[in-house]
């Protein structure tokens, strides 16, 4: 299908395994620059109860059959396939009003997020279908009753209701963690830019990589879909606070305790430090960042800087610098390469932003830009939704309200002066909870006071200074590995944050029982679980032969004073506790000279290692190393090494094996406890 045809198309929804067109012709969606129809949207006639059931019954089980690594590999292949088609997305994205640079954030930023989840999923999650959360909780002295928290995928569907400003990224940043968790999704893009989301979903489905039912798309209203959500479903929403609040209190969502994540209006602040006077690098960086945040995506970004908090004595210089910079922003049709800022998403959206500027004008005066008389380098300034950047200044921000309450979702920011760091913190907090704030300063004292003062009101805080200037990802960029969301007005939700985002689609359960029963659930050996000692050294076994619980009890070795002195002189670690009897005795923890912890670990390796070449390929570290009892000359060490977890890698000839290593003395007291991490071949050569 040629979705880039010049004739406007009727968008289709992908539901129940097929592309369907709405029963009616639909509402026209207009090119943001020209006002010419791009597509028609309508979803009438879709049976939304069946759409939910299809996801739950078909997509869910198919995804849950796959391990985290298999799902991660699927995301990677989809990301690569989308990247190959990226020019097609760029071509259509221009109709949304996005410049090439704006589209890069949306298209390649979105695909990059998908690929990042693919790679993090493979590196940070085990190749299993259940996640362990935290350590084993011992509930009995004799190790017969313990507990382990686990996370398993919800058996429902994730309904993602997205905003118009990022038709690709907005979908992919939610889809990646959802699919990685093993949960199917129904995507509902905002109507205004749904044609771009529809194109991307079409290309995803065409890859044939996703199990049927894992991804459905609704172009147009979701009708009565929310009436049918259940306790295993999750709903995420990005958009206006008013719609978000209405959906959050929807009867079925409240009655069935459906997980609801909301990201709504956010009056993000940027604070200029008291030290960052005009002429400093931080001042220049601040000006650049504020202007950039005002103009990228024509300010239609949930993370854009709306409130510019600056020392009063620098305000005049700041207004001058920003006015200069903003006046150089060429506004127009993004099809023209000279254009740096495109139009807003629609004429309605421009009217909405103009109305909000009027609200802000109750407390602030316009110091740059004219909202009512746009100038455009190319395109008709009336037919296209063009709006030049508008900068306001509020003399008394402490007693004003609209500047802290009204989000003008466009290229609009307000400068608010402050005199003390405490006042800056107070002004930032007046946003009542935001997605992000940035602080530009080179003064660690200022940063400590301000960041700790505003952190509880923000999901992310970025500190800008001369050192990070070149490598900084900037105020406005949510990153796959970092939390995106904010408290209070920002909706109270949390997305991304690396593997944290995956867990939002999983249920945490505390499982209690005898260790062997817990191991059966978790796939991880714990103290007290059954062991197997079949006489063969576990290092001789390939992954195909090795079993969780395979155990080796080693021979013993007595530690001598000579050993300690040899180790001290050999390594150079002549710390008094190993070398000076009197000083060691005076230490409250020791009763005379003790062996080095690393000597114990080294002797342990000498006891448990099987030296001949074999399936064990490498030791890549230890986890959770603790020295529990001092070892004095004359003590005898023995090791109990147990296969704790086996994690075969997809598409590789080897996997990771975690060994529980307990080093004990002649009284069977544990002197050291840790996990040994090794790479082991899948088969014997
Ligand atoms: P809306 O809240 O109207 O829409 C957001 C999403 O919700 C869209 O997908 C919309 O679909 C959908 N929606 C609307 N009503 C319902 C409903 N009853 N049931 C289910 N879904 C529904 O916001 P807009 O996109 O119109 O943007 C308006 C304002 O929201 C902006 O001016 C800005 O202030 C704010 N906004 C904030 C964002 C943020 O991240 N902080 C992002 C985007 C907007 P449809 O488009 O089909 O109506």
Task: Determine the oligomeric state from the structure.
Answer: single chain
Helical residues, percent? 25-40%
The count of DSSP E runs of length 2 or more, i.e. the number of strands, is: 27
Number of helices: 20
Distance between the termini: 51 Å
* Helix/strand class: alpha/beta
Strand order of the largest sheet: 15-16-17-14-13-18-19
Radius of gyration: 30 Å
Identify the bound ligands: NADPH dihydro-nicotinamide-adenine-dinucleotide phosphate
Overall geometry: globular
Strand content: 15-25%
Mean pLDDT: 95
Major sheet, described briefly? 7 strands, mixed
Which consecutive residue ranges, at least 5 long each, have pLDDT under 50? Answer: none
Region (Disordered): 473-495
Domain Aldehyde dehydrogenase: 61-507
Pfam family, one: MaoC_dehydratas
Domain MaoC-like: 550-658
Description:
This protein is an alpha/beta fold and 685 residues long. 32% of the residues lie in helices and 24% in strands. The chain contains 20 helices and 27 strands. A 7-stranded mixed β-sheet has the order 15-16-17-14-13-18-19, with helices on both faces. Strands 10-9-8-11-12 form a 5-stranded parallel β-sheet, sandwiched between helices. The chain has a 5-stranded antiparallel β-sheet with strand order 23-25-26-27-24, with helices on one face. A hairpin with a 5-residue loop joins β26 (654-664) and β27 (670-681). It is globular and about 90 Å long. Bound molecules: NADPH dihydro-nicotinamide-adenine-dinucleotide phosphate. The site of NADPH dihydro-nicotinamide-adenine-dinucleotide phosphate has 23 residues, from α7. NADPH dihydro-nicotinamide-adenine-dinucleotide phosphate binds at residues 161-165, 188, 190-192, 222, 238-240, 243, 247, 263-266, 302, 352, 407, 409. Keywords: Oxidoreductase. Residues 483-495 have a biased composition (Gly residues).
């Amino acid at each position: 299908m040629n979705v880039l045809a010049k004739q406007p198309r009727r968008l289709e929804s992908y539901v129940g395994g097929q592309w369907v067109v709405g029963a009616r012709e639909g509402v026209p969606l207009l090119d943001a620059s020209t006002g010419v129809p791009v597509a028609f949207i309508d979803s009438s006639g879709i049976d939304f109860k069946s759409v939910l059931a299809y996801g739950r019954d078909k997509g869910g089980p198919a995804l849950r059959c796959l391990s985290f690594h298999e799902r991660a590999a699927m995301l990677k292949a989809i990301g690569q396939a989308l990247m190959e088609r990226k020019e097609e997305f760029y071509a259509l994205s221009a109709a949304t009003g996005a410049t090439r640079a704006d589209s890069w954030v949306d298209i390649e930023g979105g695909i990059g997020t998908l690929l990042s989840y693919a790679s993090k999923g493979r590196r940070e999650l085990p190749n299993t279908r259940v996640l362990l959360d935290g350590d084993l909780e011992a509930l009995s002295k004799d190790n017969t009753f313990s507990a382990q928290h686990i996370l398993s995928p919800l058996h429902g569907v994730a309904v993602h209701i997205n905003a118009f400003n990022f038709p690709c990224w907005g979908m992919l940043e939610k889809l990646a963690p959802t699919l990685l968790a093993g949960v199917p999704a129904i995507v509902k893009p905002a109507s205004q830019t749904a044609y771009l989301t529809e194109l991307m979903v079409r290309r995803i489905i065409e890859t044939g990589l996703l199990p049927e039912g894992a991804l459905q798309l609704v172009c147009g209203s979701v009708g009565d879909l929310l009436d049918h959500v259940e306790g295993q479903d999750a709903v995420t929403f990005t958009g206006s606070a008013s719609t978000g609040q209405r959906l959050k209190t929807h009867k079925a969502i409240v009655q069935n305790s459906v997980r609801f994540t909301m990201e709504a209006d956010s009056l993000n602040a940027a604070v200029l430090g008291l030290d960052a006077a005009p002429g400093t690098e931080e001042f220049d960086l601040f000006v650049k960042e504020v202007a950039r945040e005002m103009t990228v995506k024509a300010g239609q970004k949930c993370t854009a800087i709306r409130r510019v908090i600056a020392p009063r004595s620098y305000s005049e210089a700041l207004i001058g610098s920003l006015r200069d910079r903003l006046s150089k922003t060429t506004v127009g049709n993004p099809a023209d390469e000279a254009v740096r800022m495109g139009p807003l998403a629609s004429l309605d959206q421009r009217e909405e932003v103009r109305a909000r500027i009027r609200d802000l004008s109750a407390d602030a005066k316009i110091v740059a830009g004219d909202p009512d008389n746009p100038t455009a380098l190319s395109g008709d300034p009336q037919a296209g939704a063009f709006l030049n950047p508008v900068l306001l200044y509020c003399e008394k921000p402490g007693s004003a309200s609209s500047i802290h309450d009204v989000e003008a979702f466009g290229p609009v920011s307000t400068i608010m002066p402050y005199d003390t760091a405490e006042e800056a913190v107070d002004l930032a907090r007046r946003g009542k909870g935001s997605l992000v704030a940035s602080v530009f300063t080179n003064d660690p004292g200022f940063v400590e006071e301000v960041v700790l003062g505003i952190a509880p009101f923000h999901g992310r805080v970025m500190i800008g200074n001369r050192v990070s200037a070149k490598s900084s990802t900037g105020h406005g960029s949510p990153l796959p590995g970092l939390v995106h969301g904010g408290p209070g007005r920002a909706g109270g939700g949390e997305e991304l944050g690396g593997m944290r985002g995956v867990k939002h689609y999983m249920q945490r359960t505390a499982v209690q029982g005898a260790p062997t029963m817990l191991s059966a659930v978790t796939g991880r050996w714990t103290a007290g679980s059954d062991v197997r000692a079949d006489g063969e050294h576990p290092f001789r076994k390939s992954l195909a032969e090795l079993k969780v619980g395979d155990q080796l009890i080693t021979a013993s070795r007595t530690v001598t004073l000579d050993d300690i002195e040899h180790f001290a002189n050999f390594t150079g670690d002549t710390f008094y506790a190993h070398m000076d009897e009197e000083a060691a005795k005076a230490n409250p923890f020791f009763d005379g000279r003790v062996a080095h912890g690393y000597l114990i670990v080294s002797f342990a390796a000498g006891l448990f290692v099987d030296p001949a070449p074999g399936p064990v390929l490498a030791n890549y570290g230890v986890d959770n190393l603790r020295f529990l009892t001092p070892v004095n000359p004359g003590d005898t060490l023995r090791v109990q090494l147990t296969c704790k977890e086996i994690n075969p890698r997809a598409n590789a000839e080897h996997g990771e094996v975690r060994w529980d290593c307990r080093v004990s003395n002649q009284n069977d007291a544990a002197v050291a406890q840790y996990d040994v991490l090794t790479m082991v071949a899948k088969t014997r050569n």
